[in-house]
Amino acid sequence: MKIVTAGTGMAAAEFVEQLRLEGFDGEIVMYGDEDYPPYSPCVIPFFLAGEPLDTVFWKGKDFYEKYRVTARLGEPVMEVDPERRIIHAADGKSESYDHLFFATGSHSRYPRPEWLATHGVFGFKNLTDMVAIDRYITEQHVTSAVVFGGGFIGVDAALALKARGLHVSLVHRNTRLLSQMTDEEGGQFATGRLAEKTGMDIRLLTTVEKISHTNGQLTSVRLSNGQEITTPLLILSVGVTPNSAPLWGDDQGVIVNEQMLADPCIYTAGDVAVTRHAVNGEPGIYANYPNAMRQARSAARHLLHGDGSYGGSYNTTVLRKHIDFPVISAGSFTGEAVTWQRDNVWRRVYLVDGMINGYIVIGDARISGYLYQHYLARTRVDGIIRKIISAPRHDGYYREMLGFASS
Predict the structure, then answer these.
(1) Nearest to 150 by CA among 168, 164, 126
(2) Which of 52, 136, 225, 336 could anchor a disulfide with 351, C-beta 3.0 to 4.6 Å?
(3) For the residues 166-188, what does the mean pLDDT come to?
(4) Per-residue pLDDT tens for 118-127?
């Protein structure tokens, strides 16, 4: 049996590792658009902030040798022919397969793709981006940057550059940062505290409309409100799109069943997979590390043993890199809102039928695990949730379990 993976990211690496650990001894070929061993996207901002590059290779730099993989690097899959069981790569070559693991991830959306031709303008999505930004900062002695996009990736980028020692201006079209992982009030609270704690220059309700350059080198950006910021570095992070076109013909993601199959011989996982939400059943792309790992393991088990199924995805997001001020959320922000705030800590839980439908925790992460377990278990918490989230020491539930006073 011959297995081909379209992608060499976290999901593909986990899939291959599980196959080998469970005794699969057949041929494995991995196609990827970058020239690196599998790495963790969660860790690469730490490299930009100054950590060693080797720390990003979460399964080792020798992954391909260790798991006996033929690696076709720098050769993204451009087209899949399911009927003939063949993939076509960017270099024009083709590869047959018995089973395909399609985990091509996603790519950044750019408001003006032509801006990337200007020296000093970068995306912020993969390790290739990070290495290029790192080299540019070092060679050009960069001391300031503009980040366009204040969602999770944009804030992650801004915090990494701030930790690197740069002065950062963060430009966002919305009323608040992290607008996809917070509600309005929670996002406003997080935005204000992030500004206070980091000293970043945050520009809301505006966009980058124009860039200026001299001999191809970025010199400044002009905002939609007419303001201009002098900068040699612009990071674009306004959104991502799944790389589903090679298989599906469009960029809406790949629909899979509970065995992670999009086709009798094609498994799919990660940022490109459309799966069912484990709580509300809604189909969507729930792109995070835990989901990708469980999807990959489910696919490997089904391929080898013909059993098992994926139980559904959870939309959880955790931001706590480079700053002692976490922002954590999960679920849907609908239902009865129960809120508590004190100083730099803000918590809100949304209840439906007495169960947690979603939550936002800002400023202190200690309670988040407790909330997450009740969210997963679908237990009624309406009788205790106000007491739990209002614990001034932020760990009231755990102290109560151990018999300590909660005052």
Answers:
(1) 168
(2) 336
(3) 97
(4) 999 999 999 9
What domains lie within the chain, and their CATH numbers?
Answer: 2-107+241-305 (3.50.50.60), 110-236 (3.50.50.60), 326-402 (3.30.390.30)
Cα–Cα separations (whole angstroms), residue 76 to 6, 35, 104, 272, 285: 7, 11, 8, 15, 21
| Contact (Cβ atoms closer than 8 angstroms) between residue 239 and residue 287 | no
Q: Are 97 and 4 in contact (CB under 8 A)?
A: yes
The CB-side HSE value for 255 (13 A sphere, CA atoms) comes to: 4
Residue 152 pLDDT level (bands cut at 50, 70, 90) = very high
Rounded CA gap, 79 and 88, in Å?
5
Pairing of strands 99-102, 2-6: parallel
Structure tokens at 12: 């593909």
Q: Is the pTM of this model over 0.85?
A: yes
Among residues 290, 386, 330, the alpha carbon closest in space to that of 186 is found at: 330
Given this model, what pLDDT does residue 405 score?
45
